[in-house]
Design a protein that fits this description.
Largest sheet: 4 strands, antiparallel
CATH topology: Nuclear Transport Factor 2, Chain: A
Order of helices and strands: HEEHEE
Helix content: 10-25%
Strand content: 35-45%
Strand order of the largest sheet: 1-2-3-4
Structural class: alpha+beta
CATH class: Alpha Beta
Number of strands: 4
Distance between the termini: 40 Å
Shape: globular
Radius of gyration: 14 Å
Number of helices: 2
């Protein structure tokens, strides 16, 4: 039975928290995509989190809204997280 989307998101959040530790604060779901990963059905889940140490003063407006983005590939048949990547945006 395929892993439902909600469970896949939980798996991605648990993986982020367990792998990144203090770098995974205030995790938020940003994007979800269904995909074919080399013949295997998977979810690509993008999560955002607060950076561990802001590059700017905590009092600056841009530091207050800065978030790090990572994508997680979760297999639909097992719920296993098989990849984590930095999510980069065009123009950065």
């Amino acid at each position: 039975m395929p892993v439902p989307l909600q469970q896949a998101v939980v798996k991605a959040v648990e993986f982020a928290a367990g792998t990144l530790g203090d770098r995974a604060r205030d995790i938020r779901l940003e994007e979800v995509e269904s995909l074919d990963n080399n013949g295997t059905a998977a979810w690509r889940i993008t999560l955002s989190m607060l950076p561990a140490v802001p590059n700017e003063s905590v009092f600056s407006v841009s530091a207050a809204f800065r978030r790090d983005y990572k994508t997680f590939t979760v297999l639909k048949d097992t719920g296993e997280v098989i990849a984590m990547k930095i999510r980069e945006f065009a123009g950065e």
